[in-house]
Write a structure and sequence with these properties.
The complex is a heterodimer. In chain A, 32% of the residues lie in helices and 26% in strands. Chain A is an alpha/beta fold. In chain A, the strands form two sheets. Chain A has a six-stranded mixed beta sheet with strand order 6-7-8-3-9-10, with helices on both faces. In chain A, strands 2-1-4-5 form a four-stranded antiparallel beta sheet, covered by helices on one side. The radius of gyration of chain A is 17 Å and the shape is globular. The two termini of chain A are 27 Å apart. Chain B is of the alpha+beta class. In chain B, 69% of the residues lie in helices and 9% in strands. The longest helix of chain B is centred in the middle third of the chain and has 43 residues. The radius of gyration of chain B is 30 Å and the shape is elongated. The two termini of chain B are 22 Å apart. The mean pLDDT of chain B is 82. The chains are: A alpha/beta, B alpha+beta. Chains A and B meet through helix 2 of A and helix 6 of B.
Chain lengths: 229, 269
């Protein structure tokens, strides 16, 4: 599903966010990207949804070389992906239903299709009772589940989550990660950038650790801290 | 933000429109003064009416001559006596005034050339073409026209800059929405079209508001001008419907172009 080979990212100020990163993530896998702030986690995710281009190397997503995409092809890549952020990125003046419908209208979905897909997504994240609520009327956990629901309406094959539990308490964080796990069970590939050690340790999934832009560990059924077991 | 954009467009186009109308008014005023210039031709004393009329006919055939009017010696003499009642008692009994004529030109810039030509004709004594006054008015008209063109260009650039900034601020307030649209896979055109349409609507509404301001200001200026006889001819001569169409077209173009250019920045972030 994802393949990076020899990827480096150097910003204009000379800072190297990623250094010769090569890795691949299979279809249907659930993986965490861990590392300290500034280690390159978010940069890695931004490359995958073509928010930026690498200085060197190749980035493949779903068999497509995203570095070779023309600007007018990028929206069609993003329609196959779901992206979730720490700050939810919901539109404050729209209620939950409208936030989800907005994402579908953008890609030209018909009203009947919009109703059906929103119903499915809200049922999946357990927010059918909050349709009319505005973001400020929802808890942090609900807002993050709403953001996940929005990322699900396009039936993405790959879901990228950048610090999805960064603003949540441990219990709510665990609920959100469980939700991502359910989505993974249904077939989507999940890549979560986080520095939440508790959820990484509890999930026992693949862990890719970055340090100063280098991949320093890639461990199946790993924990947040390196262990030999 | 919509209010800020619309009011910025209204004020910018209002100031620009007011300047254009004032400049056109000044130009028309200068042109109307130039149109008043005519050449006064005085014959020699021995020229009779038939000769004067023959001369008038040959002048009338010259290019750029609009009309020639031979003045009656008797009327001129009567007018002279009215303004100088003691002239007969002073010893001047018979009419000493020669035949004269007034030549109106169709192109004011040819006045001096025509006057020089008439001066060389037989029977002509004196030609008065008001050269100094004409030169002064034409120079003033040229300066007014130059300042008007420069002013309109500067104001137009300023209006485009101000309006483009107002639209940029409107878009900045909606950057989160644009960012989310990009994130969920909206094409650039899908994002751009509604915002450009919004720019067009803002431009048209702002231009209409500018037109209302100009009409109100115009009627006030007209009322003032009625009290000043010399300003009676001070008019831009622009039909209000034409003014509305031009302003709204300008508002639409500026609104659309301003939105289009400003969105590019947000789409390429």
């Amino acid at each position: 599903m994802i393949s990076l080979s020899g990827v480096s990212v150097e910003y204009e100020n000379g800072v190297r966010a990623l250094n010769d990163v090569s890795l691949s993530i299979a279809k249907g896998e659930f993986a965490f990207v861990v590392g300290a702030t500034g280690s390159g986690k978010s940069t890695l995710l931004r490359l995958l949804y073509r928010e930026m281009l690498p200085s060197a190397g190749q980035v493949m997503v779903g068999g497509e070389d995203v570095t070779a995409l023309k600007p007018n092809e990028v929206p069609f890549l993003r329609r196959k992906l779901g992206v979730v952020f720490q700050d939810y990125k919901l539109l404050p003046q729209k209620n939950l239903w409208e936030n989800l419908a907005f994402a579908l209208r953008v890609i030209g979905a018909q009203p009947r299709e919009i109703r059906r897909r929103i119903g499915d997504a809200l049922a999946m994240v357990g927010l059918t009772h909050c349709c009319d609520a505005f973001p400020h009327q929802m808890s942090g956990g609900e807002q993050q589940r709403a953001a996940i629901a929005r990322s699900l309406v396009n039936h993405p094959t790959l879901l990228l989550a950048d610090e999805p539990t960064g603003n949540l308490d441990p219990d709510t964080s665990w609920e959100v990660i469980q939700l991502l796990d359910q989505i993974n069970v249904r077939g989507a590939t999940i890549l979560v950038a986080t520095h939440d050690s508790q959820i990484v340790d509890r999930m026992k999934k693949r862990v890719i650790q970055l340090d100063s832009g280098f991949v320093v560990r890639d461990q199946h059924k790993g924990t947040y801290q390196h262990s030999e077991s | 933000m919509a209010y800020a954009s619309i009011s910025t467009i209204a004020l910018s186009l209002g100031v620009l429109g007011a300047f254009v109308l004032l400049a056109m008014g000044a130009n028309n005023f200068a042109a109307s003064q130039i149109g008043k210039f005519e050449i006064a031709v005085f014959m020699r004393g021995n020229v009779n009416l038939a000769q004067a009329q023959a001369l008038a006919a040959s002048i009338e055939k010259m290019p750029d001559v609009a009309s020639v009017n031979v003045r009656s010696r008797e009327e001129e003499w009567a007018t002279f006596k009215r303004s100088n009642p003691n002239i007969e008692s002073a010893g001047l009994q018979s009419n000493p005034i020669p035949f004269s004529m007034v030549v109106k030109v169709s192109d004011a810039s040819r006045t001096t050339y025509l006057a020089n030509k008439i001066r060389t004709m037989d029977g002509v004594h004196t030609v008065n073409d008001g050269r100094d006054m004409l030169g002064c008015v034409m120079a003033t008209a040229r300066v007014v026209r130059g300042i008007s063109i420069a002013g309109v260009i500067v104001l137009l650039i300023t209006a485009v800059f101000i309006i483009s900034n107002a639209i940029k601020l409107t878009l900045y307030a909606r950057r989160r929405e644009i960012q989310i649209m990009k994130l969920v896979g909206a094409t650039n055109w899908f994002i751009r079209i509604p915002l450009v349409i919004e720019g067009i609507v803002f431009g048209a509404v702002g231009a209409f508001a500018a037109w209302v301001l100009l009409r109100l200001g115009g009627s006030y200026v007209s009322r003032l001008a009625e009290r000043l006889p010399m300003m009676a001819r001070f008019s831009s001569g622009v039909d209000p419907a034409v003014l509305a169409l031009v302003l709204i077209a300008l508002g639409i173009v500026i609104g659309a172009a301003g939105s289009f250019v400003s969105i590019r920045r947000f789409l390429h972030d």
